[in-house]
Amino acid sequence: MLVKDVMSAQIVTVSPNDTAQSAARLMLETEVGALPVEVPGVGAIVGIITDRDIVVSVLGRGHSTSMAIAEFMTVSPEVCNEGDDTAMVAARMRELGVRRLVVVNDDRRVVGIVSLVDIPAERPATEERQ
């Protein structure tokens, strides 16, 4: 199975200058747990934020929800290609300790996000009974 078969193709992005509060509101409205951070007018993805980032890096440290996303985002997020095999991507995510990857196409344009929960668990091969 390929990443493009299981990814979320709904792309909702934020700007590095947006606030933690506006990002949290957007996550609530769109029912997503992660947002790629895009440079406005350029289209380049420079980071990613998750709902956990907002809780831990902003609220947990007592910062204001008006804090700019650029101050707590993960810079240069890991990506995968829409044509990658899901089992290989799942293994890579576990190795990296992440639950989501930004998905790009062959032109390196963002086409979605894949979450570890989107990828079906591999079923062990059953042995033939004698």
From TrEMBL:
Keywords: CBS domain. It holds the Pfam family CBS. Residues 7-65, 73-130 form the CBS domain. PROSITE patterns: CBS (PS51371). SMART domains: CBS (SM00116). It comes from the Bacteria. This is CBS domain protein.
